[in-house]
Amino acid sequence: MEELGKVKKIRDLMCGRFTLYDFSKSKLNIKRKVIPNYNIVPNSNVLVIDRNNRITQVKWGISVSWSKKINIINARSETLDEKKIFSKTQRCIFLANGYFEWKRDKVKTPYYHTFRNNMLYFAGIKNGDEACIVTRQSYSNTNIIHERQPVILDYLDFDKWFLKNHNFECLNTKNLLIFRVSTEVNNPRNNTINNILKK
DNA sequence: CCAGACGTTGTT
DNA sequence: GTCTGG
DNA sequence: CCAGACGTTGTT
DNA sequence: GTCTGG
Among all strands, which nt has the closest C1' to A183 (CA)? Predict the structure, then answer.
């Protein structure tokens, strides 16, 4: 697995309001150029930090040998330690500038969740070069859109996460900006900045 | 023993 | 493929 | 999830 | 751009 950078260089990644970083089309040095991806879908390439503070590229979604249908893109924090399928995974941290969630009424309306000035760090677990996002019950502000959300880590809590001392609380959730975006994001082929602009 | 599960969210 | 509950 | 349709029969 | 069948 190619090392793409160190955590201390994290600011270098913040050169756009991307959803997650995608290096699928070329092997790029983070410091030079990043291909923005405004519509990450399962099996996309994403960047994670591993427990050695290395940034690596992995596939979003953990597959299993015995089924082609199962592609695990989320893991419930409530049962993370019970599920045998996660027993051999390692903890990691997803780099993101935000995430989409759909409010489901009669129709599905997409919303974007982001911080004003900072990246988002999602609690994740990985198995080799595949990883998934750890989720939890939403807080009062995110629950308006959807009942589940990623566990969003603070930069200072990275070690807690890697050492399994993190309790899945993420009070930083209250600082999220949440706004409606165009339904263009519903189609993975639409991969432009319009996906994350306030509608 | 062995049938049935094995993970989540309904995409993101 | 491997574990587990009945 | 995600490829393929989304129309019809002129044509294939 | 959005829905659906597998």
Answer: E1
Give yes or no for CB of A42 within 7 Å of strand D. yes
Tell me the ipTM for this assembly: 0.68
pLDDT tens digits, one per residue of A71-110: 888 888 888 888 888 888 889 988 887 888 888 777 788 8
Closest to A128 (Cα-Cα) out of A40, A53, A64: A64
Q: Is the CB of A43 under 7 A from strand D?
A: yes
A108 CB-to-strand B distance under 7 Å: yes
d(CA A91, CA A93): 7
Whether any strand E atom is under 7 angstroms from the Cβ of A141: the reply reads no
Helices (H), chain A: 158-162
Amino acid identity, position A124: G
Please give the DSSP secondary-structure letter assigned to residue A142. G
Average pLDDT over residues A109-119: 81
Nearest to A153 by CA among A34, A10, A45: A10
Model pTM score: 0.80
